[in-house]
Amino acid sequence: MAEQVRAVRTRHAILMAAAKVFEDRGYQAATIAEILDAAGVTKGALYFHFQSKDDLAQGVLAEQDHRPAVPPRHSKVQEMVDVVMLHAHNLQTDPLVRAAVRLSMDQQPGLDRTGPFTRWSHVGAALLAQARDRGELLPHVDPAETADVIVAAFAGVQSMSQALSDYRDLTHRVSALLRHTLPSIVPPSLLAALDLTPTRGAHVHTETHTPTETTQAPTTETPTPTPTHTTRHPAPTT
Question: Residue 154: which of 101, 78, 206 has the closest Cα?
Fold first, then answer.
């Protein structure tokens, strides 16, 4: 058991070191030697857990999927908003999420970057499909197309925020993005009940990390009688 715990800690230390190097240097420029030095482990320990730099980068990209998911909401549009705002908050506070986004946005060759975009689009499309079934969307909305648009827009907003303020203004920019896009997606009656404030992500983060809290975060959304469906949310690398 002690060896298993030690192995888990070693793997986490390697991932954290890799995240820092990838965020600072990008995928192409990062080297195994730099990651070894940052992690303070032997080459054998690293290769026990990861076979190559590509495998290590994919590990960083996948690690964000293990972040706590947003609990189910009565309003699936609010649930989608919470997923987006929580990701924005994590980008400000979680080095692994920041590194995963850097890898996802790195356009240099040598790394498969499709996974994060595909996973986020699937999550968004699933939530929007549930929202459509509950009557929460305008008639013209196509869940898959709309999810792709939101993921792409978030990628642009986070890239701009990173360049201008090192993510300090990200939650405000994402709040503005949602306030501009959601009126073309949801009816005005539901829009007025959504919590789109910049602090929403921090509140959801506190909720997901506090076991004694209930699964329903404080919100102004209007409950519907439709049964709740659970969707597992990866943590957007975009």
Answer: 101
Q: 193, 79 in Cβ contact below 8 A?
A: no
| CB 18, CB 101: distance < 8 Å | no
Q: pLDDT per residue over 143-188, tens digit each?
A: 999 999 999 999 999 999 999 999 999 999 999 999 999 999 999 9
Rounded to the nearest 5 degrees, what angle is found at the Cα of 168, between the Cα atoms of 125 and 202? Answer: 55
Give me the long-range contacts of 171-177 (CB less than 8 A, separation at least 24): 171/85, 171/88, 171/89, 171/92, 171/198, 171/199, 171/200, 171/201, 171/202, 172/198, 174/84, 174/85, 174/88, 174/198, 174/201, 175/85, 175/200, 177/153
Q: Number of helices (H) and strands (E), helices first, in the chain? A: 11, 0
Residues sharing a CB contact under 8 Å with residue 225, sequence separation 6 or more, in sequence order:
none
Output the pTM of the full model. 0.75
Contacts of 37 (CB under 8 A, 6+ apart): none
